[in-house]
C-alpha cells in the first residue's frame, strides 16, 4: 500500500468515527467492557499462578518418625524414599537439627526453647522435595504405602524380639521342670487328663485373645497409631484449592469475555453499517470505476481498529491506576494474605497485559468492520 493511500484510508476512518458520535461511543464502551473483563481475569490468573509457584517452591512432604525407629532402620528408609519417582531430594533431620531449626524460626522468642537440649521434644523427620505440584498426589500415595509397609515390618521385628526375650525368660523354668520331672511323675500321671484339659483350655484362650487383639489392630486404619512413621504432613489441600480457584476463574473469564466480544462485534457492525449506508452511493461509484474491494474496505477496517484500540486503552489506563491501590488495600485489610500471595508489581503486570488487551480490541474492530461491509461490495 502506498503512503498516500494509507493517509487517505486513515483520514476517512477517523472521520467516520467522529461523524457517528453516539454509535462510536457505544462501540468503544462495549469494547472497553470486554477489555476490562480481560484485564481483571488476567490480573487474577497471573497472581494465582504466582501463588501456585510459591506453593511449588515450598511444596514437599514431611515424615515424622517414632522414637522406636533405630538408626539402621532410618538408613533403610532413606534408601526407599530416594527411589520414589518425582522425589528430587530427601533431607533427614535429627532431633538436634529440628531444635536448631526451631531456634532459627523463633529467633525473637528463643527463650521458649531454653532447656530443651536435655529433653528434646522434637521428632526426627524426613523432608521430601517434589518435582512440581502435579506429582504431589502420587508421591503422597507412594509414601503412604511405604508407611504401611514399614510399619508391618517394624511390628514383625518387635514381635520377634519380644518372643526371643520371652524364650530366654522361660528357658530356666523349662530346665527346672525337666530336673524335677522324675520326682513328680506320679503326681503328673494322676493329674494328666485335667492338666491337658487346662493346658488346652489355656491355649485356646490365648489364641482367642491373640485373634481378638489382631482383629482390633489393623495397620492403616483411621485410628491406628503408627510407631514407625508416625505422621505424614503435606500441602495437597492448599494446592488443590488454588488450582480449583485458578481453573474456575479462567473458565468464567473466558465465558464472560466471549459473550462481551459478541456484543462488541455486534455494536461495531451496526456502527460501521451507518457509515456504509451513508456512503453507499460513493461505494457503488468506486466499484464501477474499478476500485478494488480492499481499497474500499480499508477506511472501514481502520475505523474498526480505531474504535477497538480506544476501547482497550481506556480500561488499561483505569486499571493501571486502580491495580496498585487494590493491592495496597488488600495488604492493609488482610495482612495474612502476604503469606500466601505475593502480588505482581503494577509495571510488569501491565507491560504483559497491555499488548494482549490492545490486540483483542483491534481484532474486535476488524471483525466488526469486515462483516459490516461485506455484502455492500457485491455490486
Question: Topology of this structure?
Answer:
Layout (H helix, E strand, L loop, with lengths): L2 H17 L1 H38 L1 E6 L5 H12 L4 E7 L1 H11 L19 E6 L5 H44 L5 H6 L1 H25 L12 E6 L1 H43 L1 H9 L4 H41 L12 H28 L6
Helix pairs in contact: 1-10, 2-8, 2-10, 2-11, 8-10, 8-11, 10-11
Characteristic key phrases:
7% strand, 379 residues, 4-stranded antiparallel β-sheet, alpha+beta, 72% helix
What is this structure, in a nutshell?
The protein is of the alpha+beta class. Helices cover 72% and strands 7% of the residues. It is built from 11 helices and 4 strands.
Write a structural description.
With 379 residues, the protein is α+β, with helices and mostly antiparallel strands. The chain folds into two domains: 3-56 and 237-377, no CATH class; 65-234, no CATH class. Helix content is 72%, strand content 7%. The protein has eleven helices and four strands. Strands 2-3-1-4 form a four-stranded antiparallel sheet. α1 (3-19) crosses α10 (293-333) and α2 (21-58) crosses α11. The longest helix has 44 residues, at 136-179. It is elongated and about 120 Å long. The two termini are 24 Å apart. The relative contact order is 0.17. Residues 191-201 and 210-215 have low confidence and may be disordered.
Q: Kindly report the spatial arrangement of strands forming the biggest sheet.
A: 2-3-1-4
Distance between the termini: 24 Å
The backbone outline, from C-alpha atoms, is elongated
| Helix coverage percent | over 70%
Structural class call reads alpha+beta
Main β sheet profile: 4 strands, antiparallel
Round the Cα radius of gyration to an integer and report it. 39 Å
